[in-house]
Amino acid sequence: MNTVVRSWSAWFVASCCLLLQFAIQIQPSAMIPSLEADFSLDAEALGVLTSGYFVTYLICQMPIGWLLDRHGPRLVLTLSMAVTFLGMLWFGLSESFTSATSARVFLGVCGAPAFAAAALVAVRWFPARRFALMLGLTESFTLIGGLLVALILPPLDLRFGRFGSSSLLCIAAMILGILCWTFIRDRPERSMATSDSEHSNAWSGAADSVSATLSQPRLWIAAVHGGLFFTIVGAFGGLWGGPFLRARLDVSFEEANRVLSLLFLSGAIGAPILGLIATRIRWRGPILIVASLGCALFSSLLVLARLPEGAVLFLLFGLGFFTAGFALDLAYVRDLVTERMQGFAMGTANLILGIIAGPLMLMMIAETLEGTGLDGAVTASNASFEQIRTSLIWFVGGLILTVPLGLLLVRMMRRVHPES
C-alpha cells in the first residue's frame, strides 16, 4: 500500500471513530421520550444523564494526549473501540437511572481518544499547510454522526427500544476496532508534517514540554473560543435543540429531530469549505471573525426572534455552517507546539473546549429550565416555548462572546504568523 493510499485510509478510519464517538455523545437527544419513560427524568436529571458522558471524557483528555504521543493512534484507537462495544452494551441493558448514567460515564472514557487521535493522524500523515482542511473534513464526519443520530435513531428507538438502537452502535464499534488495527499506522516513514516549511517548528517559540504548552495563553483562548463554537452541536444539537424545535414548531420529537438534522448537514458542508479557505494562513483570521459574527447573529435570531418556519430553517442551516469555525481555533493550537507535543496540545484544547460545550453549557441550560417550573417538575417534553427560550439565553450569550474573543485571538496569533 503506497503512502497516499495509507494516509487517506488511516484518516478515514480515524474519522469514522470520531463519527461514532459523537453519535454516542448525543445519543440521548434522539431518545428523550423513551428515556423519560424508562427512568422518569425531569429536565435536570436528563441534563445529568447527558453530561455524565462528558465527565470522564474530559478528565481523560490530557492523559490520552500523552498516551497518543508515546504509543500512537493505532493501539489507542483499537482499544478505545473495544471498550466502547462493552460500554454501549451496558447502556442498552441498563434498567435504572444510576446504571444508565454509570454506563454513560464509562462511555466517556471509551470515546476520549477519538478526537485527539483523528487530529494526530491528520498532523502526521498530511502536509502542515493542509491541516485546517483535513480538520474540516474530519469535523464533517463528526457532524455526519449527528445527522445519522437525528435521522436514524429516533425511529429505531421507537421500534426496538434503547437496547435495539444501542446494539447498532455496538456493531459499529466492533467493526471499527478491526479496521483501526488493520489500516492505521502511527506515522509514515518520513514525516510529511516535518518536511513542510509551514510546520510549527519553524516558529522559534513553539512549546516543547507539558509546562510550556499549558502556559500558552493563546492555547487557552483558542480552546475557549472553540468551545463556545461547539456548544452549537454539543449543547444545542446534542440535547436542547430538539425540545426547542418541538415547542417552537409545535411538532413531535421525531419531526423536531428531522428538522435539527439540517444543523448537522450544513455543518458537514461548511467544515471542509472553511478548512479549504484556511489553508492560506493569512485568511484564517478573517474567516474566524466572520464565523463568530455569523454564529452570534444567527443564534440570537433563532432563539429570540419570532420568525416563520422558513426563516427558522435558514437560521439553523447558517448556524451549522459556521460551527466549523472551531476547527480554525484548533489549527491555531497546532501552530503553538512542536511535533512531539501535538497529541497533548490537542487533548488539552479538547478538554477546555469540551467543558464549555458539554457539562457547563448543558447544565446551565438545564438548571435555568428547571428554575422556570413554578407549578411542578419541568421536563424536556412538557416545557413551553417561553421556558426553553429563557433557558437558551446562556447559549446565545456564549456565541455573542465569540466575537470579542475571536478578535483578541486573531490579534495574539499574528505574533506566531506575522504574514497573516
3D architecture notes:
With 420 residues, the chain is mostly helical. The protein contains 16 helices and no strands. The protein has helices at 3-25, 32-39, 43-59, 61-93, 97-111, 114-125, 131-183, 210-214, 217-249, 253-277, 281-304, 309-323, 326-334, 342-371, 385-391, 393-413. It has one domain: Growth Hormone, Chain: A (Up-down Bundle), CATH 1.20.1250.20.
Classified by CATH, the class is Mainly Alpha
N to C succession of SSEs: HHHHHHHHHHHHHHHH
- DSSP helical segment count: 16
Q: Might you state the CATH topology name?
A: Growth Hormone, Chain: A
Low-confidence stretches: 193-202
Given the C-alpha coordinates, what overall shape results? globular
Task: Specify the CATH architecture.
Answer: Up-down Bundle
CATH H-level superfamily = MFS general substrate transporter like domains
User: By helix and strand content, what is the structural category?
Assistant: mainly alpha
The number of strands is 0
**Averaging pLDDT over every residue, what do you get?**
84
Whole-angstrom Rg: 20 Å
Count of folded domains: 1
Our measurement of the CA-to-CA distance between the termini, rounded to an integer number of angstroms, reads 38 Å
The biggest beta sheet, please?
A: none
Beta percentage is under 5%
